[in-house]
Amino acid sequence: MADNYTGPLERIDATRWRIPKSYKPGMHVDGVIYADDALIAAIKQDKSPEQVANVACLPGIVKYSLAMPDIHWGYGFCIGGVAATDPQKGGVISPGGVGYDINCGVRLIRTNIKFTDARLQMGKLVDELFNTVPCGVGKGGIVKFSKPELRKLMTEGSRFVVKRGFGWESDIESTEAHGCIPDAEPDLLSDRALSRGSDQCGTLGSGNHFMEIQVVERIDDANAAGAMGLVEGNLAVMIHSGSRGLGYQVCEDALQELQHTPRKYGIELPDKQLVCAPIDSKEGKTYLGAMRAAANFAWCNRQIMTHLAREAFSNVLGLPAEKLGMSLVYDVAHNIAKMEPYDVDGKTCQLCVHRKGATRAFPPGHPELPDRYRGIGQPVLVPGDMGRASYVLTGQAGSMEHTFGSSCHGAGRRMSRGAAIRASKGRNIKRELAERGVVARARGRTGLEEEQPDAYKDVNQVVDVLHSAAISHRVARLRPLGVIKG
Amino acid sequence: MPAAEALYAAIGELATDNEKSPFHFEFESNDPSVLLRDFLNELLILFERDQLCLKAIIESTFTASRLIVAGSMAPVNLERSVFHREVKAITYHELNIREVAGGYEATFIVDI
Known about the structure:
The complex is a heterodimer of chains A (486) and B (112). By secondary structure, chain A is α+β, with helices and mostly antiparallel strands. Chain A is built from 18 helices and 19 strands.
């Protein structure tokens, strides 16, 4: 990874640090990083705070350039970054603020299955998932969509695949934006993007993507857990994936097309990877339309895998998924840009909120939430690592005031992939995980080494910071039991 | 060729079938590092979409504004290959190419 950050970091309070806008020329606003003392020491080990400062240079950025406690170094924007820009003030959209994997996100499926009843079947369940869910390099999906079908899929989102039998009607209501951002423009996608996506819908991919069987280990908020159907001691399934090659290509095409746009609009940038265009410009609208289409593809991708996970459980346990209570708790994106209303200086403004490795975290009462979550706040799904834990949180009022309705998206890497492989030398990660009670299956030779628990920060610390800051509230802690990776 | 090999090494240990097909790429840009990135990006797409892998370069011309590469590709044998990870994209981040004795040295970062 990159060198240490040596610039200024001023303590605001117990959970926030400021990079003042006086730090470098061109910063329009301060940078603000959420972290406690221990995490900030780790965060300074790479250049991600510098990236927070760079993002503060984007035209039209409002209030501050933010980073969540799982911040780590990314391309242009840091991972864990949040930036809101105002189109009325020349605000820009930047593909680097969304990332290559558009609408990478997480969904959680609850079950009625008690861990104590399924303990002896765990190996079988993991094997069945591994054989049912296409994962890893070169693995196509169970369904190949023609280009016209893909365009329809990207217009309709999750509903398109649910109508074809890949899931339940109730899944749609439990998905952010009902699995479909309006104003998607699939006709703006290149042939190359469509061809990369044609057989990848319903595939996990590789890298940090996974499907995990978990047990609800601890309930922190019984009321919220009850609304989500989470029961201590019961199994759950977490899926982490995104828009696959189609989304990568949309980002790639946009980075190419926007190369000269900053000069055209007189925008000076401290990093080439931050290329951007005014939201209301032709170039900005083109990217937004294509990005929304890719986001809808990603929701369909996770929806098809939900169907496959239900099939796998049903095959092993001999009961239909409905009897196993495998309903969707929620699905939420963590790589996306969306237009959302916020109060700025006493006025309601439609802002373009970039979340790159940050999860939407709307508080109780927010009109976008389904009825069953209106009273508790939006479920925020925070995968940790393969060995420790993941969390379910709910969005809190502080998120609207301080973080543009956003929270963390995971534990955040603390080791590069190369360092993780070096740290695995002479060890057997699969066996180590088994000793911790986790059955792991991976197609890639180095996948488990690169993704080993030590490669990540402690998710407990990350979640504690945002709980203390009243951004999101702990509901349940889930422990991994089985994981499949590409 | 070494840049292509570096990309393939990130993906895995790729085995190919004997059948070969010719290719001819031409890229133009005022930035030599972007030429390299575009070439690698083309290879990535051909690998992911068509399961093709560069086998040999017969002709290459690299100037400050143009890259021409011609040679042969071969189908990747998915059964015999060992995959490490999926490469999403060749990024512009810290992209760099410099002339050294006897050739060029380049840095590129892939997103995985």
